[in-house]
Design a protein that fits this description.
transmembrane helix, cell membrane, 293 residues
């Protein structure tokens, strides 16, 4: 088996912040491809090219995986692929910041299920308050209900991806399981992309744009996160990851001119505070290798 190639790493905290900025900037750029490729076409191009990049960078030997390993990889990859698809579909109806905020509910609920601390119920209650504030009320700001359902579905799949990823980590050494999972995700999303975008996916401009999204949303942040995970305490990692909805809103504002209402900003703050609170309490939402956005 060829040796795994290692990439140079930044100091952990700047590296993790750059990882999150890269993911959300990549998601904002991906949204600009929707008029040409649609959400499914963009997902398929991004995930397929991400799989190709990871194969080139890490050169895993998938042929060496046992049947038991594939039984763990298949649900992991399927959850990853459908999570990406539902998240991008939610972006056709929601601002980036709101979609990421709603998606974060999945790992938060998983943290509650895995936690044995009664006080974590308070943090999840705060997150629930944030979701209630996002929900439109009479005379309030409109929130597309299907977009919200899609973002919450992506969050539920994120939680499933986390659990399945734990099984992969136990059974498959190094990054081989991750690359195998992304390969499965590409196989899952490619048919949807072909149905929606067809030959447009093979246009040079689409491939170049998809490659940029794959680099900024998958290959680069994955490498940076892995370096940060090895160096940072779990609580610090969890608190920093809690900033992701805010960084998503910032990317939406800078690159897509998406503005949130003051009430939506308060709702986002509730979710961020809840995630940080659970992390400081010792039960952080596990978000390693998060490729959803």
């Amino acid at each position: 088996m060829p040796p795994v190639r290692r990439l140079p790493s930044l100091p952990p905290i700047p590296g993790l912040l750059l990882s999150m900025l890269s993911i959300q900037g990549g998601a904002a750029f991906a949204k600009t491809l929707f008029p040409t490729l649609g959400a499914a076409g963009t997902t398929a191009v991004r995930v397929t090219l991400a799989a190709a990049l990871l194969h080139l960078i890490f050169r895993p030997s998938l042929q060496s995986l046992s049947r038991e390993a594939w039984r763990a990889v298949l649900p992991y990859g399927a959850a990853l692929g459908i999570m990406n698809l539902t998240f991008y579909l939610s972006l056709t109806r929601l601002p980036l910041g709101l979609a990421v905020t709603l998606e974060f509910v999945g790992p938060l609920v998983l943290s509650l299920v895995l936690s044995r601390r009664v006080q974590d119920l308070l943090w999840v209650g705060l997150a629930a308050l944030g979701i209630v504030l996002i929900t439109p009320h009479q005379g309030g700001t409109h929130l597309d209900p299907l977009g919200a359902v899609l973002a919450l579905t992506a969050g539920a799949l994120w939680a499933l991806y986390i659990l399945a990823g734990g099984a992969v980590a136990r059974r498959v050494p190094g990054v081989t399981g991750v690359v195998a999972g992304v390969t499965v995700a590409a196989a899952v999303t490619l048919p949807f992309g072909l149905v929606q975008a067809g030959e447009k996916m093979l246009a040079p401009s689409s491939l170049l744009a998809g490659l940029l999204v794959a680099v900024f949303s998958s290959a680069l942040p994955y490498s940076l996160e892995m370096a940060a995970l090895r160096a940072l305490p779990a609580r610090v990692f969890g608190v920093l990851m809690s900033l992701e909805p805010a960084l998503a809103a910032l990317s939406g504002l800078l690159f897509l001119r998406e503005r949130l209402t003051p009430l939506q900003v308060v709702a986002m703050g509730c979710v961020i505070a809840a995630s940080a609170g659970i992390s400081l309490g010792g039960q952080r939402p596990v978000t390693e290798g998060e490729p959803a956005n």
